[in-house]
Write a structure and sequence with these properties.
Elements: E1 9-11, E2 17-19, E3 32-34, E4 57-59, E5 64-66, E6 70-73, E7 79-81, E8 86-88, E9 91-94, E10 98-100, E11 105-106, E12 111-113, H1 124-136, E13 150-152, E14 157-158, E15 163-164, E16 169-170, E17 175-176, E18 181-182, E19 190-193, E20 198-202, H2 209-219
Keywords: Acyltransferase, Amino-acid biosynthesis, Diaminopimelate biosynthesis, Lysine biosynthesis, Repeat, Transferase
Protein name: Acyltransferase
Pfam family, one: Hexapep
Length: 220
């Protein structure tokens, strides 16, 4: 689970795993999976990680968390990150499931969340119940009542300080512009900008299996 990473780790006598030379002293959570050549950066990224799932977080082959990105989860939250993904100071919030597929890139300050204020949680009585529950929980985490899964398909580029809201699926090869607020599904190869996000153009697909094989052939 923590072998052959891009950062060396050490295991304590109690079985806890630490990133060698980490400026933050906490161990990595036991219910995360880091594939070969993954770069978790720092255990500080998991200070608000409260998932009780068997695997609450996974970071795929050669993927990296850079700039102290933060992974916030409730007890039922789960974050899945594919292969060759760049998370640059990215905040991911999950009370259900956030899935990021291979070859995606997230610029600094981007936010992905499967939890938000809904018509139900706007009720004063519901808000009071949520706040009282958080006050009595061991970690003071405010669990969302209506989380909706988020899916980022392969080869998506998200610009700095963009926000992807609950229930959204972003199609393969799409580009999300800087500071864009994404409130609904984005089709493949669309370029989306603004608040709320709107499609301004579509890209010509260049990441087809045929083009990929051509690129590999040029490297051999």
């Amino acid at each position: 689970m923590h072998k052959n990473l891009a950062q060396p780790v050490v295991e304590s006598s109690t079985g806890e795993v630490f990133i060698e030379g980490d400026w933050f002293p906490n161990p990595l959570p036991p219910n995360i999976v880091l594939e070969e050549m993954a770069y978790p950066d720092t255990s500080y990224s998991f200070t608000t990680f409260f998932s009780e799932k068997p695997v609450g977080f996974s970071l795929g082959y050669a993927s990296g968390n850079y700039g102290h990105g933060i992974f916030t989860t409730g007890k039922n939250g789960e974050i899945r990150v594919g292969r060759f993904v760049v998370l640059q100071c990215t905040r991911i919030i999950s009370n259900r499931l956030v899935t990021i597929h291979d070859h995606c890139m997230f610029s600094w300050g981007s936010v992905i969340t499967d939890s938000w204020v809904t018509e139900r949680t706007q009720s004063p009585a519901i808000r009071r119940q949520m706040l009282e529950a958080a006050a009595h929980s061991p970690n003071r985490h405010l669990e969302s009542i209506d989380p909706q899964p988020v899916v980022i398909e392969e080869n998506v580029w998200v610009g700095f300080e963009a926000v992807i809201l609950p229930g959204v699926t972003i199609g393969r090869g799409a580009i999300i512009g800087c500071k864009t607020i994404v409130t609904e599904d984005v089709p493949p190869y669309a370029v989306v900008v603004g608040n709320p996000g709107r499609i301004i153009r579509f890209l010509e697909p260049t990441d087809t299996p045929e083009n990929r094989q051509k690129a590999f052939a040029m490297l051999n």
